[in-house]
Amino acid sequence: MALNWTMLDESKQPVPLRDEHTVLTVDKGAEITLNIPDVTGSHKRMKGSGRIWLTEQRLIFVSSSTPGDPTLESLSIPLASLLSTSFVQPTFSANYLAIDIKPSPGGGLSEGTKAEIRLKDQAMFGFVSTLDKMRERALYMKRESAMEDQLPEYTSSSTFSSSSATRSTLPAASTSTNPSSEAPPGYDMA
Predict the structure, then answer these.
(1) Is residue 132 predicted with pLDDT exceeding 70?
(2) What SS3 string covers 44-113?
(3) Which among 71, 103, 132, 181 is least surrounded, fewest beta carbons within 10 Å?
(4) Are the CB atoms for 35 and 43 separated by under 8 Å?
(5) Distances 159 to 151, 165, 170 between C-alpha atoms, Å
């Protein structure tokens, strides 16, 4: 996850990663607030408004502010780095999405970073639902790739005979000539 490191093209749209496809785009009215704790215990608060892209791999925010502004310009969060999401419905203000983020080394954020996302021109619940589905998929894919990496390699033994294995592991052939004895329970042979 990286703060102000998102690669953008000339039209301020994120450059997709390999095999990355956009699932949802919020073209205007997205606001994000970052609370970044520092080592002294205080919090650095950054706020921006702009556009959001949700892809199969990342949640990307790009501010509509002028370049060079020392505030939040862009934020790229791998979906597997979203520690938790919470759909918050306050009594006297707009709904928002609260996110706990796992920072990556050198990404400009620290442990305990939290974000709030508010949408002005779009229903929040649909966005949250899609984000949660994509996040679950990303976590599943990460677990699957980790499991594949842990599987032992297949090695064949030259002293092992495949014909003896076939003979010893196959069940003995049924000597019964009655086909109904091999039918599943409750199956009538008519």
Answers:
(1) yes
(2) EEEEEEEEEEEECCEEEEEECCCCCCCCCCEEEEEHHHEEEEEEECCCCCCCEEEEEECCCCCCCCCCCC
(3) 181
(4) yes
(5) 23, 12, 20
